[in-house]
Amino acid sequence: MKILFVCMSNICRSPYCEYVFRRIVDNDGVLGKNITWIKSAAVFNKSFHINSKAKTALLREGFTEEEIDAHVPLFKYGQGRKYFDQADIIIGMTRSNKVFLPLKYHKKFALLSTLATGEYKAIPDPVLIKNQDEYHRAMDEIKDYLEKYAENLKSEFSQD
Q1: What is the pTM assigned to this prediction?
Q2: 8 A C-beta contact, residue 59 and residue 68
Q3: Which of 25, 5, 22 is nearest to 14 (CA)?
Q4: Is 66 exposed, middle or buried (0-12, 13-18, 19+ CB in 10 A)?
Q5: Angle formed at CA 93 by CA 91 and CA 145, multiple of 5 degrees
Q6: Which of 12, 85, 88, 125 is the most buried (most CB within 10 A)?
């Protein structure tokens, strides 16, 4: 399975998902056998650097500066397009993420909150949050969704 996380600019939510979910998968034998890659990209803005608050949140998760600085935001066009084409599932944070996807990718699109809990809840873009503690709370919510989604996937893979 190939997973692509998307958000508006690929500087906050989606790279956080990519890093944290990859670690979850790497530390789990069932998931590691079934998920071949995890990437992230933007559906709206072409950006150039990860958000500084996202970097702080990833450092808090134990990732190194070198790992985080290696992130180059990708966009639905250009270099990022191959990941949209190759992904088995494109996981967004809000319904608006789907609006900005080319129609050919709509069948692959799912929402993180729905995959995790069975119910839709928009995961707001934390880019405008000024306070780092509030930003961490927003990212902790995303991490909780990722952990629940991982458990759901693990159950699915175990049934196969």
Answers
A1: 0.97
A2: yes
A3: 5
A4: exposed
A5: 80
A6: 12
Q: Would you say 40 and 17 are in contact if contact means Cβ atoms under 8 Å apart? A: yes
User: In residues, how long is the chain?
Assistant: 160
Alpha carbon of 90 to those of 13, 52, 130, 132: distances in Å?
14, 25, 29, 28
Say how far apart CA 147 and CA 143 lie, in whole Å.
Answer: 6
Helix, strand, or coil here: 48?
coil
| Nearest alpha-carbon partner for 42 in 76, 72, 16, 15 | 76
The pLDDT of residue 160 is above 80? no
Which of 75, 74, 50, 73 shows the shortest CA–CA distance to 63?
50
Do 31 and 24 contact (CB within 8 A), yes or no? Answer: yes
Residues 148, 116 contacting (CB under 8 angstroms): yes
Note whether 109 and 90 are within 8 A (CB). Answer: yes
- The pLDDT confidence band at residue 39, using thresholds 50, 70 and 90, is very high
SS3 156: helix
d(CA 71, CA 47): 11
